[in-house]
Task: structure prediction
Amino acid sequence: MAVETELQRAAGAAPDDGRSPDGGRTGVVETGSGLNLSETQAKRGFVLLAITFFVSQVSISIVLSIQPNFFRDVIGMNGALNGYLIAIREVPGFLLIFVAALLLRLGMARATALSLAIMGVGYAAFALTGSFPQLIVPTLVGSVGFHSWLQLQNALGLSLAARGEEGSVLGRLNGIGFAGSMIAMVSILALLLGLKVVAGDLRAHQEPYLRGLFVGAGIAGLASAIAIVRFPVSEDDRAAAQVAPAITWRREYRLYYWLSFLDGSRMQIYFAFAPFVLVEQFKVDALSLTSILIVAYVINWLTGPRIGRLVDRHGERSVLTAGYCCHLAVFLGFAFAPNVWVAALCYVAYNWLFLFSIGTTTYLRKISRREDLAPSLAMGVSLSHLTAIAIPIFGAALWNRLGYQFPFLFGTVFVLLSIVSTQKIDVARQRIGAAGVAAGSR
Result:
């Protein structure tokens, strides 16, 4: 019922004060990209995008929740080896600017559908692997689709956002996505609990079920691709896609690029090593890890729209500063966690802090030209992966030589730089071109 309510809210896309999506006018909705869609098109767009967020997060969450235990218990990997696999996985993210140059010519809706289909195929292929070398191809295929979807989801959401409500729209969509994650995690938890009751020794009997879940994740990825195909695109949007620069690198967006680089460097450490701190150092099994993720996704589902409204109300600089300060506490918590409870709390907190990245996206939207938005988001994703190979490998070396604490201590450098850099955000001064009427400049 709660999930249905979120989907209904997304369909209406109404601001919190009860006004209609077009600010009280009828007929057309002026969206964040400066384009006009009919009310029917805007509502249909929100429904389709909400469904896509929901189902794609089901797919992604299944994979994220079972990979650490599958890699350790079935493949025989440790934390350091996982760092090397993460380095391989992130190569497509770095090359996204070139992939996006091809995809965006299809239009955002078709590019998104193709990206999610590729992601689904890659995720399903994990079910066929039995060794570390066999993981490489599914990892690369799934990564191409996932990273393409990563930048396209925000561009699609912003295309339906009214001026000054960018954060609210992205926050609502993220909340719907986390609802999908929550349902995926509850389903996995029920499966693993049943297996534990019947079999007793979970690790000895989990392999065929984990492989089946990878197949299920692939099917969900393909379903989300089907859902987004009919996303409404105006003639102006199609025309903008044809003239949009294939690769965008503008001096005016340098702060966004720098923040993306720092965010990506920090996230590489988290993705590579945080789950393995729980699994390897504190012996957390698949059942317990899934339970932790359920808690995280419930929190994100409930707070996603609120974080988005905070961005609209208080501005990107304030919200991002608060988020990065929390990131610093979380990284220190991972490094010095005295027990599994503190480590689990840090894991939940870091997942929640992903919501604060809405501020970076809305900052770009407010300062950029319309035609630059999608390729600039792709550039941001690529820059966030600039260190994707070096940092996991360097972190793995720190883990092996000095201990699991040191990758996280190293990560605090990027967090501190992010705090300092965020203070330079000034939307009113930094906006250019058609973004000059953007609201919420703080």
